[in-house]
Each structure stands twice: as C-alpha cells, then as structure tokens.
Write a sequence for this structure.
C-alpha cells in the first residue's frame, strides 16, 4: 500500500494524459465516422466529389491530434518522455489531471458535433459543389472550441510546478 501511495501523483498525472488522449480520440473517431457515412453516400452518386468530401470528413480528426499533443506535453512534464522520471506529489498529479480534462472533455464533445456539422456540409457539397468554401466554415466554427480547450490545457500544464 505504501508504494502505491508514494506513486499516487504519478498515477493521477498519467490518468490525466490518458484521458486527454482517449476522450479526444473517441470524439474524433465518432466525428470522422459520422462524416464518413455522409461522404460515402455522396460518393455513390458522384465520385468526382471525392476530394471535397474527404476534406470535410477529416476535419473532426483534429481533436484526436490535440488530445495526443496534450498527452505528450503531460508525459514530458512528468519525465516519462525525455529527461527521466520526476517526483510528482499527489497534489501536482491532481493538477495535471485537472489540466488535461478540458482537452479530453471538449475533444470528445466537439469531435462528435464537428462530425455532424461536417456531414451537413457534405450535404451542401452534394447539391452545390461550388459552395465548398462556405460549407467548410460550419465545421470550422466547432473547431474553435477544440482549439480553446487545447490552449487552456497547454497553459495549465505549463504552469504546474513540479
């Protein structure tokens, strides 16, 4: 029991990194899947729209990348990547866990909804391919919140003293 308690901070920090990666990755997987279904439907009707619908399908994938980035930053902070292990108190571990949660939670939710918005934009491209630029703005608006979560998680992790 004593060994577990002495490593509790490291456990919390690793849990935070894992949640950022897992939750944002799940959001992206859901979103890319939703958009992919819409893209597949358009492709059956007009294969010439492949490039445009592929771009729309890929947009929800960014949340997973942002979560991965926060995971790497957290692992680097605690010395798992790079300089070697660092002593992480339970409080510091909880701080890292809390700092990773914005990216994980927002990544999960925004990835899903960006996928739905991308699917709707794929519907625009199906009927009006000349409106691709305008159609891309709708899922890009959802992306804004994933970027804000990335920023706050990055700043929070950076500000934690170990």
């Amino acid at each position: 029991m004593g060994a577990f308690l002495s490593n509790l901070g490291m456990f919390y920090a690793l849990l935070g990194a894992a949640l950022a990666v897992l939750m944002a990755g799940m959001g992206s997987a859901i979103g890319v899947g939703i958009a992919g279904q819409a893209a597949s439907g358009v492709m059956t009707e007009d294969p010439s729209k492949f490039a445009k619908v592929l771009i729309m399908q890929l947009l929800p994938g960014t949340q997973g990348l942002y979560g991965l980035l926060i995971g790497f930053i957290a692992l680097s902070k605690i010395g798992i990547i790079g300089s070697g292990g660092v002593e992480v108190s339970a409080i510091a571990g909880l701080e890292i866990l809390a700092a990773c949660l914005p990216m994980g939670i927002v990544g999960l939710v925004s990835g899903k909804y960006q996928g739905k918005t991308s699917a709707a934009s794929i519907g625009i491209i199906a009927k009006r391919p000349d409106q691709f630029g305008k159609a891309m703005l709708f899922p890009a608006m959802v992306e804004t919140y994933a970027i804000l979560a990335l920023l706050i998680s990055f700043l929070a992790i950076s500000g934690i003293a170990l």
Summary: The mean pLDDT is 95. DSSP finds six helices and no strands in the chain. The CA atoms of residues 116 and 131 lie 18 Å apart.
